[in-house]
Please model this.
Amino acid sequence: MDSLKPDTIAALRPYSRKDTGWRLFLKTIIARAYPRIIGQQREVSWLVFDVVMPMLAVISYVLVYRALNAPEEYIGFVVMGGAMTAFWMNILWSMSSQLYWEKEQGNLALYIMAPNSMMAILLGMALGGMLATAMRALAVTLLGMFMFGVTYTVSSYLQLFLVFMLAMVALYGMGMMMASAFLLFGREAWHMANLAQEPIFLASGFYFPIKSLPFWVAAGASVIPLTLGMDAMRQLVFPTGFQFGFMSVQLEIIILAVLSVVFVVTAKILLAYIEKIAVREGRITESRR
Amino acid sequence: MFVFVTLCGEKRDFMQTSTSWRSFRMAAWLGWVIESNWTDPFLFAVYSIVKPISGAAILVIMYGIISQGNYESALFPYIYLGNAFYIYVGAVMTGVSWAVVDDREHYKTLKYMYIAPIYIPLYLLGRGVARFITGSIAVFITIAAGILFLNVKINFAEVDWLLFFVTLIVGVVMLALLGLLLAGITLTVARHEGFIGEATAGALYIFSGAIFPLDVLPEWLRPVGYFMPTTYWLELLRRSLVGNVAQAFPTLANFSNMEILGVLLALSVFFGTVSIYVFRWCDARARELGLIDRTTNY
Model:
């Protein structure tokens, strides 16, 4: 052993401690978040596309508002909506569809065989995706500020932080829930994720205040956490935002907290159930193109 | 049916013998099957319709909020029809270029297509037909919804049908050739190839005056719009359907329909020629570098 290099010795050394319980859960989260955070930062070219694509839509809609001589608040609403699309796209393509991609690439069976919790893997994906996506959303927001002169006046930083964090927890909980459902999809997964873009941008008011929709439509759309999250944030960062609010910020915070709990708990139950079905029907390793 | 006699004296049907036609026809059928057989017809129909209708609805709501429901303004049909016909841009252009991604990365069959007795450019153009069909349905439904529910006023007796169909055909051919250009570029790149069509369509959306007059763009960016054939294509489609829209915006108000058609034809020929040469160059480069069967799993 003495003649070996330190790296080789470390590689040959048996595991000194077997992690179980919450320690394993936590390590699994970090392990799954790590490649997502590091990988996305290593491939900087993704940043260009992740920022440019939402910006194209933002520019188009801003210019429509300009053509209509809309009040300046609406320009800010569009920029914020454009920034938040990064999170929705991340939910669709990197959370909901992720287990399907993992199945296609043959990793899913390894995840299930390994002695860790699938919930921890999904949480790791969520955490990694959230951090990386926040960078992209920030880039869109800053670009919007520089290109269109959007200014923000935060009325309560505490409420803004609370709204954002709750919206993220609820949103990624929803993503985890959807991931288990997508597990059962075959080729439909890609199409389903593709379908859930424009209709959600419409229903959730990404480019206009949700208050403009009929009450029951807006109330129905509030199931998607970004709907109330954006509505509350618009009220908190634009001076006249309160005029466009669908509900009071306090009520929206309560609803977002409830949604967070419901989605995370449902995701756990659904994941266990769907995993059982998928194992029983032998669909974990199938790859239908 | 066109029948000809071969050098051996054998009678053959041209439609079944021509490599070009066979490549195009089979690719169109293959594309349709790939596009549509992932689900049942009902879900496929819903899928094909919901996305464009939702996109249109976003604009309608934005317009309705600011104009306080005044759908009589000329700007409304301008935005609505521009957006509806723009569906073709994404559908046709991306339909052609996406075939490279689909065949090379997803199905891993592009190399087999290259060694098959088919003509690759026409094969790729044929693959775009399915998206053209679904796009046409989406355009039709979007416009029908506008007429029925949103007060988009189109007087069918006053529609210039000849201009409409000539413009539509010229535009679709032009878009298909632009799709070929993108397909060529897609052949030579390893990363982000899936975004090329989407990003191009997104950029054209801004520079073609699809949903706002070009005058809204900063002055230094307007020339980009004037150089895009899609600008003239959308303008002519609007003029053929609702003539009075043309007078409402100064962008191309000084041009007659025939002048705009002339510009559209000239730009289409220019971009079409460039597309063919770019595709040939990219195709040759992809063959030289061994990129035809490269899969990156990116």
